[in-house]
Every structure is written in C-alpha cells, then in structure tokens.
Amino acid sequence: MEYALLSFLANDILQFAGITFILMGIFKKLNMRTIEIFIISILLSLIATYTPDFTIANMYLNQLLGHFFETIGDYIVSCFPLFNWLVLPVCGMLFGENLIRCNNKEKLYKKIFEVSGLMALIMVIIGFLSLRGMFSVTGGTVPEKLAYLHISIPDIFILIIIALFITSIFYFISKKCSSTINNLVKRTSGNVTIIYIIQWILILSLTYLYPYLFIETNLFIAIAVLLLIIIASVVLAEIYVKLKNYLV
Prior knowledge:
Blueprint: H1 2-9, H2 13-29, H3 34-50, H4 59-65, H5 82-85, H6 87-101, H7 105-130, H8 153-176, H9 179-190, H10 192-213, H11 219-247
Helix pairs in contact: 3-6, 7-8, 10-11
C-alpha cells in the first residue's frame, strides 16, 4: 500500500508537462506576457538552484511537493520538478513567438547557427579540460546519477545553446530534404506525445519481461533495443492516429 501510494504521487516528465499546461493557463488568464512568465521562471530556477533541498518528515507530502521542487528522502524520487524545468518550455514559447514574427528565417537561423555553434564549441572544450559533464549538482543533494533531473541555471544555459544549435542544423538539413521526408518529420513531431506514451509502455513492458528473457545485455544490444523502440513507437503512433481519424 505504501509503495502504491508513493507511486501514485510520484512525478516524471508527463506530470511536469501537465502542471506546466495548467500554470500557463493561469498566466494567460492573468493576461501575463511571455517575457513576464520568463522572468518568473528564471526566478523559480534560481531558487531551485541555490537553495538547499526542501524535505519534510511526511514522505507522502514530501513526494507530492517533489512535483514543484527537489525533495529527497527514503523511497522519494523527485523527477523534473517545476521550479527547475519551467524556464525551458517558456524559452520555447519566446523562441516560437519571435520565429512567427520573423520575416527572414534563413538569416535568423544562420545567425543562430554561428553564435550557438561557437558557444557550444567553447563549452565542449571547457568540459573536456575540466573533466566535468554538463549537469551540475549546484544547491542540491540528489545523487550524481540523478543530477540531470534537477538541472540548475548553468545547465539550462547549456541546454538552450545546444537546442538552438541543433535546431539551426536541422533547419538547413530540411532545406535539402524532399517533401516526403519533411512531411514525415512534421507528422512525427505532431505525434510526439503519443510516441512518448507508447515508448514508456514498451520500456516498462521490457523492464518487467527482461528477467525472463535470459539475455545478457551489452552496449550493442542496448543500442539495438533503443532503435527498435524508437522505430516501433513512431510506426505505432502513425497507426493510432490513422485509426483514430478513421473512426472519428
């Protein structure tokens, strides 16, 4: 019973997405501009980055509060807390609004590629010289292996630079691709939530089945299974959408 209740209260990226949607609705109801929401998200991220973990005695409430900021305790896993991660979707909103208003996307993406590419190269060099990964544990006590679940302000800066660099690369690649490939990418992007749900069904199913498969895993098998899950989830999402449209 204890495990079931903790699992029910547990949070992951889908719960974070749901809370974010609700919060955005509240912000829009208050007629707040995206730049104002961005400032709030930065403040929340600073609080999450530079204040100690918030932990209380009641483990159920502790797990519930983990949806909003990093909590830690026995059997408690606080994944993708709102305070840490909100700034990323808000940055996406800012980028999207400016992209819609942009009259020369070619020039915009070229500038993004040049600036973000240079900054990404500098960060890679610094990372190699300092022998550090991109995810810090600033202000938190979460184990090192879970540090990516509680990103800090420096991590967010790196993620945004990398995301902009990759986005600019894909923009120029898309200019060279056929309409068939671009349409596939567009449909897949539209199905991303369905794909994510299917992926987790497949991953959890394999997790429970693994002890009975008697297969010794290695890097090659892990990569092969990962690719199969990605392909299967994309195909199943396409089938689901077509079936849904047919029935409706």
